Every structure is written in structure tokens, then in C-alpha cells.
């Protein structure tokens, strides 16, 4: 079985101070270079907005892959998703949930669109904390869609049987920006590594089994004792 190499670099902590060794998969670097030179096959054909959309989805897929492998470091500069690229994805909030940005942004929108941006960021991190975590799927869309369309699923908006179109375009634009920054690892995880949450107005029985980590906006966040999903 072939293995993909990793590049090692050192991040300095200050003049004369030691650095922290970090590794980045060579595949990430190659994709970043490719995107920076505008020579990737994913960027061929179509108008400017289509080009931005394809670039965003390509970058998000690579970030998602490394996240599932446990990499929590920000992507190389050339692989970081740009604001204009993220906004070009799912422009009307009607596209199928088939890519990381759309799935994450739609979850942020439906779970916290009427709350604060801090709440949106917290919801986004619950999704990303689940990606690749033991007991959860390895992709953003897999995490969001886990369970059934009607019945016992993980996110209420995916379970209600109602149309999933984002109707408030201003709020959806904010949700996509939060999704972009979360995927880029630009934001601090204020949930304390939470894997679960519920609204402040409820007290589901399962919350007694977990450790409360934070209360942000309209939600309370939890993680399991010992870190294992249940």
C-alpha cells in the first residue's frame, strides 16, 4: 500500500525560542499549489462564480479529509477557502447537500440563524468536532445527515420533513462565512470540544449522561465523559 508523505515545518515561538514541529500532508501542499496557480482541473470551464465555487469545494474537501484524520492545524495559505469562494457556493440556498460548505452552512443557518454569531460558531464546531471522531462519520455531510430524514436523527432541521432551503439570504451569507472560517480553523472552539447541544429551554434526558462544557447564545453544549460518543 502506498503512503503519502508529510512535510514538517517548525513554528517559532519568538526570537531565540524553540519551535513546535508541525506536519502537513504533501497532498495538501500539492493541492494548495495547484489552486494558487489556477491550473487544477476542478477550475476549468465556466464563469467566474463557477470557478470560485469549484475552488471552494475542492479546498473544503481536502480540509475535511485531513480533519477526519485528526489534523486540527489551519490549512496552508493556498488551501484556505476565501470569502468570495465560499459565498459562490449554494448561492440561493437551494442546492443539494453534497459538499462540506453547503452542509455546514445549512446546519448553522437552521440551528442558529435567529441567535448570535457566537452561537453560529458554536454549532459549526459541534459538527467539525464530530468529523472523524470515534462513533461519528468522516465527512461533514455524513455528520449532518446521520440518522433518518424523519425520526431519530442528530440535527433537528434535518429531521422535520420540511423544505431545507435557506430563505433568509442575509443570514445564510453569515452562515457561509462562519462555515468558511470554521473549516479554515480561523476560529477558537468556544464549546470546549463539545459533541452535543440542546436549546436552553429544554432538558433532554441524555444531557444527564454528559459533561456540560458551555452555554452560548440559545444553546447548551456537552461532551461525553472520557471523550467517547454514545
Can you describe this structure in just a few lines?
This protein has helices spanning 26-36, 48-68, 83-88, 100-112, 117-130, 140-144, 156-159, 169-183, and strands at residues 6-12, 19-25, 196-199, 210-216, 219-224. With 230 residues, the chain is of the alpha+beta class.
The helix count comes to 8
Please summarize the sheet with the most strands.
3 strands, antiparallel
- Across the major sheet, the strand order is 3-5-4
Distance between the termini: 33 Å
Q: Count of DSSP E strands? A: 5
What's the average pLDDT? 82
What fraction of the residues are assigned to beta strands by DSSP?
Answer: 5-15%
Question: What coarse outline follows from CA principal-axis ratios?
Answer: globular
Q: Which features characterize this protein?
A:
alpha+beta, 8 helices, disordered N terminus
Explain what this protein looks like in three dimensions.
The chain is an alpha+beta fold and 230 residues long. It contains eight helices and five strands. The chain has helices spanning 26-36, 48-68, 83-88, 100-112, 117-130, 140-144, 156-159, 169-183, and strands at residues 6-12, 19-25, 196-199, 210-216, 219-224. The strands form two sheets. The chain has a three-stranded antiparallel sheet with strand order 3-5-4. Helix 1 (26-36) packs antiparallel against helix 2 (48-68) and helix 4 crosses helix 8 (169-183). The chain is globular and about 50 Å long.
